[in-house]
Amino acid sequence: MRRLSRRERVHFKRCRYILLKNPWNLSHSEKDRLSTLIRWNSPLIRAYYLKEAFQMFWDITEPPAAEAHLLKWMRTAKRTRLAPFKLFVQLIDAHLDGILAWTRLRLSNGALEGMNNKIKLVSHRGFGFRNATNFIIAIYHCCAKLPLPLWT
What we know:
single chain, mainly alpha, 9 helices, 69% helix
């Protein structure tokens, strides 16, 4: 924002959520504002287009097409002068096998991560337990969909 002129700042002020929203969820006035931003062709808009192009990756169902799209996107993002995207490309490159495996399997470990966070919450809430059995019972009690154990 500091590098922009006063006239440009007016257009970029309070536009964060417009850039973060999906294009099909924008209202008419938000679409008009986005088209005004696009005409400026700033690095912010290049980042917006890269974000939208990357988001299309998750909709591709064929693994070879998904891999080709992702590799093409990575080449494009590397060529930009946007440092955060270059770091993101390095991160994707480090985890490329796992990301491409998702295109074949369509499995996520999100449920497991959520359960781990619940267990951490139980642990922090209890400030420690006398033994492992009490900790396990507290976990069963917190995760209501799991049956309570019969032992006490």
